[in-house]
Each structure stands twice: as C-alpha cells, then as structure tokens.
Design a protein that fits this description.
The protein is of the alpha/beta class. About 35% of the residues lie in helices and about 20% in strands. It has 13 helices and 18 strands.
Amino acid sequence: MNRRAFAIGALSALSARRAIGANDRIRMGLIGSGGRGREDWSTFLKQPDMEPVAVADVYDPFREKGIALTEGRARGYKDFRQLLDQKDIDAVIVATPDHWHALISIAACDAGKDVYCEKPLSLTVVEGRRMVEAARKHAKIVQTGSQQRSGSHYAQAVKLIQDGGIGEVHRIHAGMQRNIAPGLKPTEMASGLSPALDWDMWLGPAPMRPFDPFRCIYNFRWFWDYSGGQMTNWGAHHLDIARWITGAEAPTEVSGFGGRYALTDGGETPDVQQVTYQFPKVVVMWTSSEVAQGKPLTLDIYGTKGTLTLLRSGFQVAPEMLGAGKDKTPAMEALQVKGNDLNAAHARNFLDCVKSRQRPNADVEEGHRSAVMCHLGNISTRLGRSLRWDAAEEQVIGDAEANRMLARPCRSPWRLA
C-alpha cells in the first residue's frame, strides 16, 4: 500500500469514528425487513450502543413490523435509496433476497455506510468480488451474516483441528436434510398481488416475471433468479466452516450432482444434491435433501485420532479406537463443549469493528470465498460436469460455458458497479 492510499484509509477510518457521535452510539438502518431481517434487527436492538434510525422494505407489512420493533423510533421507506441518503446513518443491515445483496451493499459503501450483509454474500462470483472491491475502496466494514464465525466453540474447534488435536484430517462432511415433500406453499399474497408490494422493485436486477406469490418472501430461495437453494442457504454456513478448517482460500476442483427430483411446488433448485470439493489433501462433501430427513444438520470432521461433530449447540469428539479385539484403546480423550449465542456475538463483533475499524470475524473477503464454493457447486451440478478452479484468477479452467455463469446481467436500469 502506498503512502497516499494509507493516508486516505486512515482518514476514512477517523471520519467513521467521528461520525458515530459523542455518545458512541452506532446509528443503523435495516434494508429488507422480512423474517431474517427482523431477526437481525431484534438482535442488534438488544445492543446498548445501537440506535435504530430507519427501515426500508418494498412490502408495507414487513416494513411496519420492522419499525414496530423500534417502538416507532425508526423512519420507514419503500425505496432503500432514500434510506442510504440519510446522513445520520452509520451502518446498515442488508437482509433482502440474495439477488439484491451486491447492488445494495455496494451502494451503501458508496454512501459511506458500513454493512452487515446476510449470507450468502452474493448471487454470483463476480458480484462477490465487486462487493469486496467496494468495501476496500471506501475503507468500509462489511460483515457477512455467517454467525458461526463468531461462535466461541467454532473457533475452539477449528483451533483444535488445525493444531492436530484429532489427528490428520483428510475428510469433512457437511449437510442439511429435511422432508418437505411434496413442497412448500406461498406464505404471503396467495390470493394475488397486493398494492402493499412493489413487485417491480422486489425483482430489481432480476429478470421481469409475472407476479407469483411462491417466488417472493421465504421461497425466493428455490429460484435461480434470486438464490441458489439449500447450497447457498445452509451450505453457505457449513461450507464456510469447512473451508476455515482447511485453511485454504478455495478448492481446486468441484464436482456436483443432483436435481429437482421429487418436489412439485414449482421451485427450480435441487431437492437432492451432492457436491464434492477437492482441497489440498482434504476432501469436503456437501449433501442436501428436501425429501428425506435423516440427520437434519451435519458437520463432521474425520481425523485419524477422532471424529469431531460441530453444530451450533456445541461440539463433541468421538475417539478412534486403536488396536484389536479386547486390547482396543481410544486414540484420544472424548470431548464435549457447549455452544454460545451466535447471533448476539456476531452482531457485537460487527459493532465493535465499526468502532475499531478492524476486520470483522466474517469479513467480506471471507464471505466471498465461501460463497464462491456454493456458486461453483451449483454451476457444476447444473452443467453436469466437474470444474477446475483457478482461485487467483477466479475463473474455471478451460470451460467457457461455466465462466459465463460466474456473472449474470442486470435488468435495466440496474447495473453492477
């Protein structure tokens, strides 16, 4: 970094600290006040140094619910750009559907706001890289909503594994399984489009589609225009931890299988999916099923001395048994550790970093790298072939069709900066 760039960064950090105000309270806005957005909002509202200023949502009932959580202290907007124009806002939560994450987060950085952006960070690989560039250009704090990164027991487990505590690790299995057959139903506006929703604005940069109540609210996750299924939903959480354990930026090869085999609700993303990632000397597998539950959540790390099962409730280690017959002995001691309040810890980490200007636990670059894993898994699954990944260039090696899927065009007038 040259001297001028350092000076600009230092001045930006100083200005951000001054902007917080003499009472050291961080003034925040919420963009996207649906279910997860209100959960985040509620978590932040419990922090003593957070001051709610505004809520933006294209659906009136959700916006009003977000305002109600502040006991009427926050202003309301249907258009997020009006919220970003407010000079009295230091930071924003971006909890919209995935297809809006990049444009809004970049616009927030441009407007001088720090950002807490829900996972997955992006809809495409190119979007994620642009988000990193915007955060660095403006010296903004951008935290990805991967709250497991702030779990003390997750950090403890990762350190234990990386220190060789369960022996050599060459295999990690992550997954999410449930049974929702024959499918889900719309949760809002099932009888038709309501004037309470600005459908064109909800679609934003995504292709124009006739209104479909199943496409919006929670179920946007099952459509490629807006999200990436369970791969970018739960996969963004568990694969992030798996990548953290490996200590690598990215896999070198990805091979995905699956499809929409059984659900009949009109969704597009796989209801069964299996993806294998090759890291240096470690194979990571992702499994998801929407048609048979089995074990609901999985993050198992297999070591030569023991298997560590890591979940939000905590982790436990089952030792490998060495020897033969009655002479078998455990290779290590069994271990069990309880979890902590991940959401509160993650919000606290973001607010602390807004003040200190230090990188947060789930910095935008980490969020981007883990989202890349998810996007590559989906691209491989959709194309039906393995992909070799050049992490430095962020390109699929020798596959033009796959590389075209690393970005998507924005519907006019929206464009990716």
